[in-house]
């Protein structure tokens, strides 16, 4: 029978099934067998021959027929597994089926299903890497079959898309739960296969530039599906018990505690060998840097599109495996992750369809910034010249981070405003370790202070003054702990001293507050976009573009505020951290920390500022006074008191208008004994919570939805987890 004929017959059978309203007997073999006839169909054919709308119609109008179709061929047995479990186990078996998805090791082929059940799939791991040394010959057909099976697996797991986002949804996805349990005897080799396939992938193709133009690279679709399946199986609420076990001879750490039921999370949290960490980190860094290579050798490598999945995977690795996090920060290799993230943040800042990408990038940097080593690593000079739409500067990775953050805040999409707290928290966390800021970065920080301390900005929303507190904390940390190398920042503070005086003398009387807000209503722009001497952007860079009209995007749930996202710790003399959060049982029902700022203070502010009936924000004198009195200005005021007269004297004596002389003076100056006693360093460390877990779930499934349009697996279905919107 010709393939066209068999397709026609199959299509006829589908039409019969979808138009019959009466149940068809399960014993009517002539009817049901048409569906299993040997039609050599591709996935595209199936989607063409079985329109999604028709399947849904069958489900609505004659569910019993759909059930018969699904169960046909199964023996009726009281103890039979649920169909979902059989399907998942069949997929797992097929992922290690010799001559279908893996190379057969024997001369003879595997004939019977029994052989598959006795096969030790650990010998058939798809790629060398963690816990497996042998790299099998690439095989196009095997890769394609694996990819289709992984797509099917993702479809099974996608139940999450059809549940609305619940605030504290710790709901376990039963499909993922079963697949990642001990019921699946292939869990370990499959986890290893997916992880190794992603981390070993080199899109350049055998290390030769332009090689991808010669070979069509069929590995990428598989790698992409592998990354998506991995992040979905690792969607696990709550922090995992971290394993600090002894090192054993296996790739996984065997120490107690046993860890979570989800074996994928369990295996991920127990990887512990240095060479495995190196393999994973190098692989992820190589793939994340891929779009950057594009910019200075256009088209020299294949441009990959799955960097969002990679960022989620990197996040999961750091969150579930603390040893991996420490390994990442142990050397300057962490900068190979930082630079691509800053590149993505800078590139996506004006594009509302990439707000999710902005969030995941910032969350990763927030997680890293909670560790002292991250701040220390940032002092490494930045010499890579990735063309980015930022001013040219000479300096360190810390300067790069500050310049990019300044760009995001002053010229990003207005949807990014909720991230400002996070961005500045990262700068606060690293500030005690920054040995020498460039003049460019110092000016950017002072420009932010100027923008955030205008009266209309301070008075126009309940939390805006937090941004000023964060910036003052940055300046205090650097002055108290890194004064010696930071003459550029000290000089910038002296030049902009009027901003600090204005803050100290902030008006609190009702008429002035009212007038500031009137001014705000006339010019409602997000932030002053001017007056920061921009300088020329780097050569070869493109301005950050807004989203193309018509771009599809998925909605995201709101992220928790910074006080929920982080936990405050104090760094003691010996460098250890002491949590400043009260023990949970002392908390009130609201679960607010007893510390002054910000949660308790917030409720206080809510009370002090009468929010009028229309929900209009209405700042009062008491409210302004409540936080103005806490502005940490003492250190800076003392610095100005000591240094300004000396600098002015130099200028008068030498008739100076030249910065270099003043900078030389400041470099050799000292404030020892003249400043207030150094305050303890405060670090705000990221802490897992149900709010971020829900955010990650909606973001991740949104990415997967938008990346799988051929075939359009979920397109036009009744997705509830997010809305699909057009820009």
From TrEMBL:
Q: Compositional bias (Low complexity) spans? A: 588-599
Q: Where is this region: Disordered?
A: 511-552, 567-617
Biased composition regions of type Polar residues, renumbered to the chain: 608-617
Record's InterPro entries? Hid-1/Ecm30
Give the GO cellular component terms, alphabetically. Answer: Golgi medial cisterna; Golgi trans cisterna; membrane
One of the Pfam families matching this protein, by short name: Hid1
**What domain of life?**
Eukaryota
PANTHER family, per the entry: PROTEIN HID1
The molecule here is called HID1 domain containing
Species name for this entry? Balaenoptera musculus (Blue whale)
């Amino acid at each position: 029978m010709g393939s066209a004929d068999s397709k026609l017959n199959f299509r006829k059978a589908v039409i019969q099934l979808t138009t019959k309203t009466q149940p068809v007997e399960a014993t009517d073999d002539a009817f049901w067998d048409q569906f299993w006839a040997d039609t050599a169909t591709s996935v595209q054919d199936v989607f063409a021959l079985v329109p999604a709308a028709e399947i849904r119609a069958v489900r609505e109008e004659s569910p019993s027929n759909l059930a018969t179709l699904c169960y046909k061929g199964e023996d009726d047995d009281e103890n039979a597994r649920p169909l979902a479990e059989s399907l998942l186990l069949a997929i797992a078996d097929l992922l290690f089926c010799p001559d279908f998805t893996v190379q057969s090791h024997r001369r003879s082929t595997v004939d019977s299903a029994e052989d598959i059940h006795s096969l030790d799939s650990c010998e058939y791991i798809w790629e060398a890497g963690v816990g497996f040394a042998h790299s099998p010959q690439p095989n196009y057909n095997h890769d394609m079959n694996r990819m289709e099976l992984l797509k099917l697996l993702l479809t099974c797991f996608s139940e999450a898309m059809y549940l609305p986002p619940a605030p504290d949804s710790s709901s376990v996805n039963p499909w993922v739960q079963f697949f990642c349990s001990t019921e699946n005897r292939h869990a370990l080799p499959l986890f290893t296969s997916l992880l190794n396939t992603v981390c070993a992938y080199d899109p350049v193709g055998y290390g030769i530039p332009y090689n991808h133009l010669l070979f069509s690279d069929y590995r990428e679709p598989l790698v992409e599906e592998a990354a998506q399946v991995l992040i979905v199986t690792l969607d696990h609420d709550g922090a995992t018990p971290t394993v600090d076990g002894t090192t054993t001879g296996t790739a996984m750490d065997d120490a107690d505690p046993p860890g979570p039921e989800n074996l994928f999370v369990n295996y991920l949290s127990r990887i512990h060998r240095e060479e495995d960490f190196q393999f994973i980190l190098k692989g992820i860094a190589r793939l994340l840097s891929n779009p950057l290579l594009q910019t200075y050798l256009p088209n020299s490598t294949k441009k990959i599109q799955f960097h969002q999945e990679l960022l989620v995977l990197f996040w999961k690795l750091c969150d579930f495996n603390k040893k991996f996090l420490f390994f990442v920060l142990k050397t300057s290799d962490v900068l190979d992750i930082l630079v691509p993230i800053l590149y993505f943040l800078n590139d996506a800042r004006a594009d509302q369809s990439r707000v999710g990408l902005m969030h995941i990038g910032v969350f990763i940097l927030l997680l890293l910034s909670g560790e002292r080593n991250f701040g220390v690593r940032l002092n490494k000079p930045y010499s890579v010249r990735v063309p980015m739409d930022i001013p040219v500067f000479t300096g360190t990775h810390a300067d790069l981070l500050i310049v990019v953050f300044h760009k995001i805040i002053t010229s990003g999409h207005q949807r990014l405003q909720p991230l400002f707290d996070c961005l500045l928290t990262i700068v606060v966390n690293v500030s005690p370790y920054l040995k020498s800021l460039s003049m460019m970065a110092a000016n950017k920080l002072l420009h932010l202070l100027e923008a955030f301390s205008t009266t209309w900005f301070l008075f126009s929303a309940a939390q805006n003054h937090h941004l000023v507190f964060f910036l003052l904390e940055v300046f205090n940390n650097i002055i108290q702990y890194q004064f010696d190398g930071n003459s550029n920042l000290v000089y910038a503070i002296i030049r902009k001293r009027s901003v600090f005086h204005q803050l100290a003398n902030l008006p609190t009387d009702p008429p002035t507050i009212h007038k500031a807000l009137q001014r705000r209503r006339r010019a409602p722009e997000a932030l002053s976009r001017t007056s920061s001497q921009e300088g020329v952007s780097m050569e070869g860079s493109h301005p950050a573009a807004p989203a193309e009209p018509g771009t599809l995007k998925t909605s995201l749930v709101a992220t928790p505020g910074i006080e929920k996202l982080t936990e405050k710790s104090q760094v003691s003399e010996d460098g250890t951290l002491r949590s400043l959060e009260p023990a949970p049982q002392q908390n009130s029902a609201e679960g607010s920390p007893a510390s002054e700022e910000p949660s308790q203070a917030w409720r206080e502010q809510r009370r002090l500022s009468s929010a009028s009936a229309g929900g209009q924000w209405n700042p009062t004198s008491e409210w302004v006074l409540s936080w103005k009195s806490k502005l940490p200005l003492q250190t800076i005021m003392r610095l100005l008191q000591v240094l300004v007269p000396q600098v002015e004297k130099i200028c008068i004596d030498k008739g100076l208008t030249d910065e270099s002389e003043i900078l030389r003076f400041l470099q050799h100056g000292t404030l020892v004994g003249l400043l207030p006693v150094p305050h303890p360093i405060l670090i705000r460390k990221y802490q897992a919570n149900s709010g971020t877990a829900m955010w990650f779930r909606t973001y991740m499934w949104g990415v997967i939805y938008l990346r799988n349009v051929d075939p359009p697996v979920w397109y036009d279905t009744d997705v509830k987890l997010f809305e699909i919107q057009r820009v």
